[in-house]
Amino acid sequence: MDSSEVSTLSQRDAQFHLHPFTNAVKNAHEGGKVMMRGEGIHVFDEHGQKYIEALSGLWSVALGFSEQRLIDAALRQMSVLPFYHSFVQRSHQPLIDLAAKLIDMAPVPMSKVFFTNSGSEANDTAIKLLWYWANALGKPAKKKIISRQRAYHGVTIGSASLTGMPHVHGGFDLPLDGFLHLSAPHFYREGQAGETEDAFSTRLASELDALIRREGADTIVAMFAEPLIGAGGVIPPPSGYWPKMQAVLRKYEIPLVADEVICGFGRLGRAFGSEHYELTPDIMILSKQLSSSYMPISAVMISERIYRPVAEESERRMTFGHGFTAGGHPVAAAVALENLAIIEERGLVERARVLGERMHARLAELAAHPLVGEVRGVGLIGAIELVASKEDKTPLEMPGKLGALASEALARRHVITRNIGDAVALCPPLIISEQELDDLLNRVSAAIDDVARQVKP
User: Fold this and answer.
1) Can you tell me the distance from the alpha carbon of 209 to that of 217, in angstroms, rounded to the nearest whole number?
2) Domain residue limits, the chain
3) Architecture of domain 33-66+347-455
4) Is the link from the previous residue into 370 a cis peptide, with omega within 30 of 0?
5) CATH number at 70-345
6) Averaged over 168-177, what is the pLDDT?
7) Of the candidates 381, 281, 382, 294, which has an alpha carbon nearest to the alpha carbon of residue 333?
8) Going edge to edge, which strands form the sheet with 220-225?
9) Which residue has the higher pLDDT, 343 or 29?
10) Strand-pair partners of 42
11) What span, in angstroms and rounded, lies between the C-alpha atoms of 278 and 217?
């Protein structure tokens, strides 16, 4: 599309809007897609073109784009109490009910919930909570935090420091000091010749142990991790990874923070990624499918181990000096409660498991394709990694080119997704039907064939 073909809406958008995760100069020249409405798993652009939203927006729209019950829940709450806060011993019923619901759902015992507006804010809050906790314990040196390469935890100053992606750090003078990044647990890319998955996991656990010993366990306050890495490429942990990693953390009494922003509320075919991988976190980070992103809301669940010293410190200081005006907004909380009720009533967690098996069986068939190096995923989340050479796993000319070509080919077939480097990610809404899933996967297969013809005429 050249500048003369950019629509009036796209022109206005580029004139006034600085987009996240976008080349601003490219956007100003070319414009982008402007979406006007949604229906089920589909969105429609300004020209009326219908697309399958194969990434659930941003990994988040579990119930699709037209769930009337969520709209009605928002309207009901808006008409009763359109806003209130939870500062200085105030609250409201939707927030109380949602906190109780989340504590009840938690896969391990949790004590309290702190509400925020996004995954980034929730992870930032967890960082501050842990620093506050360490000070309350009389351990002011215990402030370093462990994360991993290719992890995605957000883009605020603290959460971006947790994130293990160069493009999130570059130009922003990040990460901050004290944020330590381990190797990504991607066996396909990081495993050594002749190494088994279990041996790879042992090596990564040894890396964690060596890092803790080098830095000093008394200086490390926590490890943050997604049960399955999402935006970093849809990377399930290798065999034995989490048992070995948790054993090291327990050895040094270092808390684990499970970032469930993508994994939570059914995406992996279990209520939480922590349940799927038998994690025992002290803190859980929740967002995205919590409200199907109909309203911005996120939450930090904390164990009694974390809560009690924090509460006692707040008494000494006369307050816990942290919070957000819209954190736990009543309309967002009401929508989240209705969203969770629908997920339960319609059995969407189990549905994600069953349809996930169907999706991964189809993806496994693609593994023989000349351009496919690896297919991976769990439940209704997956990725197809494209390579120019299957033997040595090399890219085409430069990393990311094959992935970009695949995204473009899918867009021509009216599928919206994204490539993460050369990995094409799939994360459809949990409400997708068997027929819609088959249609999506047929288009994915055809798009990869399109790319093969394009690069290997």
Assistant:
1) 10
2) 33-66+347-455, 70-345
3) Alpha-Beta Complex (3.90)
4) no
5) 3.40.640.10
6) 97
7) 294
8) 112-116, 298-302, 283-286, 256-259, 220-225, 144-148, 179-182
9) 343
10) 39, 52
11) 24
Using a pLDDT cut of 70, give the percent of the chain over it: 98
Instruction: Please give the radius of gyration of the chain, using alpha carbons only, rounded to the nearest integer.
Output: 22
Cross-strand bridge partners of residue 147: 181
For residue 425, what are its two tokens? Answer: 């990610």
What are the phi and psi torsion angles at 190 (to 5°)? -105, -10
Strand order in the sheet with 381-386: 372-378, 381-386, 423-426, 418-420
Residue 6 pLDDT > 80: no
> pLDDT exceeding 90 applies to what percent of the chain?
95
Query: Contacts from 395-404 at CB under 8 Å and sequence distance 24+?
Result: 395/422, 396/455, 402/371, 402/451, 402/455
The reported pTM is 0.96
At 59-103, the pLDDT tens digits run 999 999 999 999 999 999 999 999 999 999 999 999 999 999 999
Checking if the pLDDT of 406 tops 50, the result is yes
**Single-letter amino acid, residue 98:** L
> What is the predicted pLDDT for the residue at 439?
98
- Would you say residue 355 has pLDDT above 90? yes
Q: Is the separation of the CB atoms in 338 and 387 below 8 Å?
A: no
Amino acid at 341: A
